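Run log, item B.
One chain of 129 residues. Sequence copied directly from the ordering sheet:
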Amino acid sequence: MDIEGPCLFPEGRADLIVCNPPWLPGRPASPIEHGVYDPGSAMLSGFLEGLAAHLNPGGQGWLILSDLAERLGLRTRDDLLTTITAAGLRVTGRIDTRPRHPRASDPTDPFHTARAAEVTSLWRLEARP
């Protein structure tokens, strides 16, 4: 499957492109898990690698991404920042939020420690000049 191709970006450019990719770089076991797992971070990488070519001058890409993969040791922050830079992008801002859902406060959940510490961020990205 061509992640960077037409299924991810339509033809043309835009002032704002928003992406909330699956957060964990694992293999889905069922169709519904495609919303959670992104094998090899292919969608994330495809979005970042294709973003600059699809933005109007001065446009922004907003990436909504949890750091859960980092907390579980599945991806590093350096990997993310390297991919952003290699794609010809720069971070112009970031807004972070902590979880408020029930699993974040449920100590019987097997991922409780990671979920309680999880931070979801809105990364504001622009093409580097």
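Observations after the first pass:
- The longest strand covers residues 55-66.
- Residues 14-127 form one domain.
Flagged for discussion on Thursday.
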